[in-house]
């Protein structure tokens, strides 16, 4: 089932939208329709989407600068977070207030920006966990192996098939914790496929994957489309987006600022303005700060204050600058 | 020092009701923490509910002994729901704090004068043995060999307890090799990932909490069977001893909790005999016999720290399968 | 404690050993003199005793509670079926013998004299105390007076709880550790105060010395245990369980040295000054509240104004970022541990006066209230912990207006669970990020 598309340019799906490509444009066959979705953290409006439609049977890229609200939008659409306002439907079903696991069961699976491999389960167990409607997952029938043995064998076959495609089959008995970062990304994606989803949502699938693997990852994503799934993915690397996306949605400061096919969106003034700035030639994948924490406004203020007082950011200088009688002073306050 | 008596006393702890009771509770904790990653620090509460459920249904409501056991288990199921509904959706450390608080609530409610008529407050309950002893299939008399010589009632309690323990261990083994167990272990690793795969994480955690809680309650029942129910037993220290046992044996194993309980009680039994004996024969200067007896609890604390730091997988755990890789 | 980070490792280890050796040496000295004082038969090991017989209309009254208090000693007992009671005391002197009128049957009161009498064992080894009971209605304090008194008590308790909770919360914020041994750090202050007063140090020296020792204790724990564990990169749950082991260890070390009895610090349980109505407040209570308030204000100032304080908050907010911005996380954490130790120790001393009494396992009681306060305020925010403590303190004391005092902690713990239901991130906390 492996694809040879690495050598040639992938076939783009076109004619997805109705009317002019503008933020919130209607699609011919949308799989997700969201209206008026907002989410605020404290005073910060992380997501503020008036209207957006995700096309079916195509690969849609969601791009935007760091902190644009892409992950937050993912969380909202998949039920991992609750919006302040808004409604959205998946495949015609309203999803408001539906818990995340139900959303996943409907065929809308996601991966996470910070990979969530289940470290102390083997690669194969990770895969099997992805399968839906398992008899043996019921607490009572789990006690009687004959009830689920046959299904387990089928699931294992499917898992091995997908693992082979992702070239992870030799690692099936290793703990997921022993995989490399890139392999974990692959595993997470493979695991998501075990549920035969309708829509796959990938949050930065390429982040941390070595260049040798990116090509095969791209092929996997393209394969999903060939198999009839829809894909929505977040990516900072513009080359990749240009290469595989059929449609691009651009977010900035929580809003959707542009939509269109890759070539035209890259030329869009709003995009260049909001996102690319003057660094259009820089590979943005490099610029992305993939540190674990997010700077909140409060931390920044505190750090600024500290910096202002110390006048230094160098750590060794900071220690030297710190009088040891500080400790004694603290004791005095008793 | 009378070594023969010391060794014989020590050996008798191998199958003492306390050992069996702690093993059951530790097995419950293995389901909670070892497999499910649930930080339950309220095991003493589950045990208290089992013991009191048993004693009160017999003494106050005149139920037969087996119904008393069922009531004890039922009480722990209700307790699991009360604990689980508010906290299972929250962070792991909230569950820790809520469970330990809830167990204390349970203990205080059994201790208070308010319900004295039913609970006999701080003095606890006794004299509920009739029904259970009447059901004893073993012949009258005292028999056995060496340190394991008991009367008919002694054997009945032990065999009954061991039977419960075997059933519990079998259940855990069946559950954990099944897809259900796989989901539970997945939740231990990262519940959001499991949620994203379409599993009802909350329901699984609740089921695990209930199953482990029932084992805890059964432990409480076995603890109560031969003697009495006293509220001061069900303090947080009891919970922590169960944790020590679990981590000693191996958290994510079926036999670890049982092995842990046996080792724990045999060593405790040994020390409780040998330390005071050493103190009174002058081998431990500057120490009264009471102090010498206290010493073993100090060792428990120390042992718990050392196990967790240096061998977190316990005796039976797989070196690679550290339960604690998560930061 | 000058420039602790420059002490080379072996020397530091030796310092720690020396510290503990001295500590336990001192404890051994006094464990000889202080024998455990609690048994079923109260105080039978002593040579001197108070005794009496409680009768009404020539009928003996059972289960009437009698308390003997004085000379740093306190014990109580219930009368037996014959109405008899006996309480042993360690030394001759004047004691307050109190009959708890609440435990008398309905309609019976102490008719002549007071329910609380001063009585002296001077020449003989024993003293008989009898009460004249009669028919009558107990004079009860008005609800308003009770309410005011409980509120004041609640504030007092809440403030001292806040001392412990703020420390624990700072530790949680900077290291992520839910420290189950924090209760034992509270007990430590009380035990040190007991030790120093037993060594005949005057109170004004003994109590500050105990607080300083508690700070040193915090430092020792960080240097000897927590920092090496952080270095080892041990997981958060694992460290939490280590703290449980430590809590067991320390708790039983206390039992080893001071035994199972309850001990009083000098000046504990002194009579209150009547403020108005039936509202009384003792000097100790006033000093205690003032101390807590001043120290908490100082803490707040430290957190908001000083560089280290700000760094502490920055680390609580985002450790990796703070470290990346050049904050010496290890140093800040060390200071936090010292502060947490000193604050907990102070809380322990004040609590020993509030309860009153020092007991080896008193820490387990307060630990849950500390956790409750922290969760209530939102994990890891110091000001949340302060607010949470005041609420818990008031709740515990005010709830006794309606529920029996032996389940007064239940109310606070139930509220804790309730708050989690409604507002899982606590009153001042914020939500976590997913994905
Ligand atoms: N749980 C939270 N609490 C507070 N603020 C949050 C939370 N989650 C997200 N934010 C804020 O919302 C904004 C959007 O964050 P989000 O993670 O959605 O950005 P993103 O587009 O995925 O960025 P990146 O490309 O860096 O992954 C950011 O400013 C972030 O700090
Ligand atoms: Mg993101």
From TrEMBL, chain A:
Ranges for region Disordered: 315-334
Chain ranges of the ABC transporter domain: 32-278
- The reply on keyword Nucleotide-binding is yes
Q: Which UniProt keywords apply?
A: ATP-binding, Nucleotide-binding, Transport
What InterPro entries does the record point to? AAA+_ATPase (IPR003593), ABC_AA/LPS_Transport (IPR051120), ABC_transporter-like_ATP-bd (IPR003439), ABC_transporter-like_CS (IPR017871), BCA_ABC_TP_C (IPR032823), P-loop_NTPase (IPR027417)
Q: Name one Pfam family in it.
A: ABC_tran
**Any keyword Manganese?**
no
Q: Which PROSITE patterns match?
A: ABC_TRANSPORTER_1, ABC_TRANSPORTER_2
> What is the protein named?
Amino acid/amide ABC transporter ATP-binding protein 1, HAAT family
Q: Please report the organism this UniProt entry assigns to the protein.
A: Mycetocola miduiensis
Instruction: Show the taxonomic lineage.
Output: Bacteria, Bacillati, Actinomycetota, Actinomycetes, Micrococcales
TrEMBL record, chain B:
- Would I find Membrane among this entry's keywords? yes
* Membrane-spanning intervals of the chain: 12-31, 38-59, 65-85, 92-110, 155-176, 208-228, 234-255, 262-287, 293-310
Q: Which is one Gene Ontology cellular component term of this protein?
A: plasma membrane
**A GO molecular function for this record?**
branched-chain amino acid transmembrane transporter activity
Localized where? Cell membrane
Give UniProt keywords alphabetically.
Answer: Cell membrane, Membrane, Transmembrane, Transmembrane helix
- List the membrane topology term(s): Multi-pass membrane protein
Q: Which PANTHER family match?
A: HIGH-AFFINITY BRANCHED-CHAIN AMINO ACID TRANSPORT PROTEIN BRAE, HIGH-AFFINITY BRANCHED-CHAIN AMINO ACID TRANSPORT SYSTEM PERMEASE
Please identify the protein, giving its name as recorded: Amino acid/amide ABC transporter membrane protein 2, HAAT family
UniProtKB/TrEMBL annotation, chain C:
Q: Does the keyword Membrane apply?
A: yes
Which GO molecular function annotation, any one, does this entry have? transmembrane transporter activity
Pfam families associated with the record = BPD_transp_2
Stretch forming the signal peptide = 1-39
Any stretches that span the bilayer, and where are they? 157-180, 201-221, 233-254, 275-304, 335-354, 366-395, 401-422
Membrane topology according to the record: Multi-pass membrane protein
Question: Where in the cell?
Answer: Cell membrane
Q: Keyword set for this entry? A: Amino-acid transport, Cell membrane, Membrane, Signal, Transmembrane, Transmembrane helix, Transport
- List the GO biological process terms: amino acid transport; carbohydrate metabolic process
Q: Does the keyword tRNA-binding apply?
A: no
Q: Provide GO CC annotations from the record.
A: plasma membrane
Look up the domain of life of the source.
Bacteria
> Which PANTHER family does the entry link to?
BRANCHED-CHAIN AMINO ACID TRANSPORT PERMEASE PROTEIN LIVH-RELATED (PTHR11795:SF449), BRANCHED-CHAIN AMINO ACID TRANSPORT SYSTEM PERMEASE PROTEIN LIVH (PTHR11795)
Family the entry assigns: Belongs to the binding-protein-dependent transport system permease family. LivHM subfamily.
Q: What is this protein called?
A: Amino acid/amide ABC transporter membrane protein 1, HAAT family
